[in-house]
Write a structure and sequence with these properties.
Layout (H helix, E strand, L loop, with lengths): L1 H5 L7 H4 L3 E5 L2 E6 L2 E4 L15 H15 L14 H12 L8
Antiparallel strand pairs: 1-2, 2-3
Length: about 100
Amino acid sequence: YQRRVHGVRSASAWSWFKQLKFRMEDEICKIFMCSANFLYTYEYQGNAQKLVHTPLTDKCYLTLTQGMRMGYGGNPYGPVGTGKTESVKSLGQAFGRQVLVFN
């Protein structure tokens, strides 16, 4: 899909480099996004709802993963009903981690 739509020709292309990718290395699942890498933690989340991925979702994932790489967190900010909580929960599910939401 990336090759056809975005013209990705190599693994160093930005449109491929910024994607959330999973890789098995020595029987350990690792998650990569740009310069950040994390271990998948295998926390069972059940049958969760799926999120429609938009360019804004990708930017949110990119910002949060880079913040986590530097030892920080993230706090999406914006109008009510724009999917901030769902994006964070979806990223947590992709990482295999438990996400708790407090209002």
